[in-house]
Predict the 3D structure of the following.
Amino acid sequence: MTQELIKAAAYLLEKIERRPAPAGEMINTYLATHKYLKGEAKKEFLALVWGVIRAKARLMWAYPEASWQERIEKFFESGLPDVSKAPKYIQWEVPEWFLNHVPEAEKELPALLETPPIILRATENREEVLKALQAEGIECDGCEKSPFGIFLKEYANLKNTKAWKQGLIDVQDEGAQLVALDIGVEPKQSVFDFCAGAGGKSLIFAQMMQNKGFIQAYDITPKKLFELVKRATRAHISIIKIILKLEKPDKKFDHVVVDAPCSGCGTWRRSPNLRWNLTEKQLAHIVKVQGEILERACQYVKPGHYLSYITCSLTRDENEEQVEKFLKSHPNFRVIKQKRYSPYRTGTDGFFLSIMQKG
Ligand SMILES: C[S@@+](CC[C@H](N)C(=O)[O-])C[C@H]1O[C@@H](n2cnc3c(N)ncnc32)[C@H](O)[C@@H]1O
């Protein structure tokens, strides 16, 4: 089995290398079409593939002349190589240029190499949802910080559970739940989710608002909003209205939320292959787009109310510096809360949140 396993891993890793998509998606597709991999062999295969993805730079540094097949064999036989003499960016598995962009890189980047837990959000009473999951044999418990959070003690195929089919759970990292909770939307308020995507934030806002009030969801990619509608229906949420085109900012909102497109480096624990796709030029472009989005979104905030800026990034360019730039050209806004979440700080994915109040 060993040689077959290594060959299969080499084949899949080569595919992952060629496509700029999260590795998890490609691994799931591979498993769905290679059903012979099951039980212990599947576990071993997954550990090998994820292990190699997470150690790419270190394996290349330790075995510079070897082919990938040989590196995979080495990893399979002996685990991680000794890289104590390698440069820090190799040890931390990031492009060299990236080091200067992250505050406290020496603490943040090693933590970003860890394997993350699977976290769910209970869409109804968490204790009841925990009982329902446990009754189906899912080993899980409540998260410490988010009152909606549930962590899985071991991998489970959730889509087959009754809890999933009944809309009682959604997959969402605890950090994403916590930034939404920090924003503190309340029942009967109005919220404009300006970069709503498939609705991760809109759905938790609706839950916090007890499905009372109004959420307007916009995204530049309509396909994602249609997914949001499906998820809202599954979770019995009725207060979210999607818009496919921006209207003039005549109507203003209590909360405008910009969950901005970003480098995504805060989630590199989950998609470790994506760390090699980001370039310095792309980062600069992303920062520019974020600035333009903030510029538009801020026009929809009611006086005295809130503009919240979120990224799932650890870079200061996309976070503190972006907010400083915005405040310089918008002196009628002031920061009332600013926070970073990360694997190192909070054991969650990396998020940045700045809540600004309009004067
Ligand atoms: C971080 S994702 C949003 C995630 C979503 N809020 C959630 O919680 O699931 C950023 C989103 O911004 C959208 N986007 C990119 N450029 C945009 C723009 N100019 N205006 C509005 N949305 C934009 C992307 O399509 C993407 O869905």
